[in-house]
Amino acid sequence: MYKSRMSTLRSFSVVRLSHHFTPDPDTKSGLTTILRSGWVESSPSRGIRRATCPGDDVLYCLSGSGTVEAGGQSFTVSPGELVWIDGSRPHAHRASETAPWSVMWFRLAGNDTGALRRRLFGAGRPRLKVTQASELISWFQGLFDVMGSRGIDTDLHLHAAVARFLQLVSAERAPSASAGLPFALSRLTEAIRSTPHQAWTEEDLEAAAGLSGSQIRRLFRQHLASTPRSFVRRERVTMAQAIMLESRLPIYEVAQTCGFFDAYHFSRDFRRVTGMSPKDWRELETGL
What does the CA dihedral 257, 258, 262, 263 come to, rounded to 10 degrees? Predict the structure, then answer.
């Protein structure tokens, strides 16, 4: 239910583009989509305040500046910065009084936009400085074309557009990823993948990477949005899945083979990664 109590502080001065889309009820639950998008050139101090809205707003500042209030914080957004606003919580944004902003924006909706936001930004402030401005502006122009055409497959095109946007933000958040992982981290992850059943204590990780434990944790967080322990867990689960598909080994033997302490810990971690128990997963995938 839309509980927004939007109060307009002042009207926007120039709305260069404004599009909206109503998702098909039959595909709404399965697709991430964009409900609204636009390009606004604001007059001084003009903006909006809401209690909530149906989706998350993403703003990209082309010029000028503005202030965003979100997550209990207030901060300035400058030219070239992108900010992702949680629509499920009270929020507001307004243009600067002396240098009002020009903003391209869209409203993202889906089953769990919060999970996407946390995946990209973690628990920190969801904003970043965009270095590849031409790519992002080109993406917005493509989005405006899709929403303006109102074609029969607009929902599918918007879903694809969201995926491309997430790729762009991911590349901006960790630009070194496009050039590959740092050598030490690449060497460590390859070692873990080849022998996930090993204990992989902190000493093992340090020996394989040639780095301290704190350096390793920082690299995992920066480049893989993960922790070493979570990475090892996922690789062990992946190994277990292959064994369960290729053999009839009982679950407790699969657990031992893949480095889990016992069947209980294996089942707990397997469910944490896949959402299913090992037994149910094997039955589903093998039909046995």
Answer: -90
